[in-house]
Amino acid sequence: MSEPVLTISGLNVDYGTGTDAVHALRDIDLTLHRGEVLGLAGESGSGKSTLAYAVTRLLSPPGVITGGEVHYHRRDGQALDLLALSAPELRAFRWQELSIVFQGAMNSLNPVHTVHSQLTDVLQAHRPEMKKSERTARAEELLRLVGISADRLGAYPHQLSGGMRQRVMIAMALALEPEIVIMDEPTTALDVVMQRQILRQLVKLREELGFSVVFITHDISLLIEFSDRIAIMYGGRIVEEAGAADIYRDPRHPYSDGLLHSFPALHGPRRELSGIPGSPPHLSAMPAGCAFHPRCAKKVEACDSHVPVLAAPDGSDGSRSVACWLHRGAPAPAVARS
């Protein structure tokens, strides 16, 4: 495994304050290694986008980071505390070292500005020494990089297809050649053919430029195809983390298994789609113990009252982790006091 480029330790995020606060993220520990694609999967409301916005310091009120650390590791070995950066330092850091492709390209692109204007605006803000002709040349290069003809620079967002708008967002994110690109459901609302085209383009760019990717989606089948590792989120926690092949062949958490059996296999024998009964918990009324136990067919007694810790399962070589009492010694049940 390569060296880490981003480490998240004990990250907690609330929406609101005091007794009415909703705990959106709870004790998130995650490491992104240099040059890898880390997939982040889970149902809507599991905390995936909140994690992305917390790491990039883009949380809107009433979102509050209440604990934890986020460190960016430069190639020279220096570690940068992202939660301690001042506003000017944060402005210089974003897009230069870490960029984000937001969910919904049509909502992210300004409808009254051309593609040229929006691509060169990034360059003008962060590379003021560049001449206008150099910025235009770089914008043309970025479009070609994502498979769009340079003659579309003068187009407005509404004149582009959904896939082309998404590629423009990817081009914008790569403008300053950052080390990390966070992609928040970039293929939402696109047809499956366009999804695969964009993913193939992304893999090619990653191989050429060497950046790291955090790819957020509710569709785990997409992540199986091109991610190096996958982290599964549920109820504001990470419940399983492992290599993509390990998750596909042998999911250890019942929630991961349920996600995998919620879409049809493209190869091999037919299998019945089982899905997951019930709905995700409301973050303001989380069940005691394991958050997934009301929907879990494999729950044990400890699940009702004890929260499992994300750790290596019994007998594992340490390459994966899971938060489930099925894979380690369950705690003794509480003794009722007389």
TrEMBL record:
<comment type="similarity">
    <text>Belongs to the ABC transporter superfamily.</text>
</comment>
<keyword id="KW-1003">Cell membrane</keyword>
<dbReference type="Pfam" id="PF00005">
    <property type="entry name" value="ABC_tran"/>
</dbReference>
<dbReference type="InterPro" id="IPR050388">
    <property type="entry name" value="ABC_Ni/Peptide_Import"/>
</dbReference>
<dbReference type="Pfam" id="PF08352">
    <property type="entry name" value="oligo_HPY"/>
</dbReference>
<dbReference type="GO" id="GO:0005524">
    <property type="term" value="F:ATP binding"/>
</dbReference>
<dbReference type="InterPro" id="IPR003593">
    <property type="entry name" value="AAA+_ATPase"/>
</dbReference>
<protein>
    <submittedName>
        <fullName>ABC transporter ATP-binding protein</fullName>
    </submittedName>
</protein>
<keyword id="KW-0472">Membrane</keyword>
<keyword id="KW-0813">Transport</keyword>
<keyword id="KW-0547">Nucleotide-binding</keyword>
<dbReference type="InterPro" id="IPR003439">
    <property type="entry name" value="ABC_transporter-like_ATP-bd"/>
</dbReference>
<dbReference type="InterPro" id="IPR017871">
    <property type="entry name" value="ABC_transporter-like_CS"/>
</dbReference>
<dbReference type="InterPro" id="IPR013563">
    <property type="entry name" value="Oligopep_ABC_C"/>
</dbReference>
<keyword id="KW-1278">Translocase</keyword>
<keyword id="KW-0067">ATP-binding</keyword>
<keyword id="KW-0997">Cell inner membrane</keyword>
<feature type="domain" description="ABC transporter">
    <location>
        <begin position="8"/>
        <end position="260"/>
    </location>
</feature>
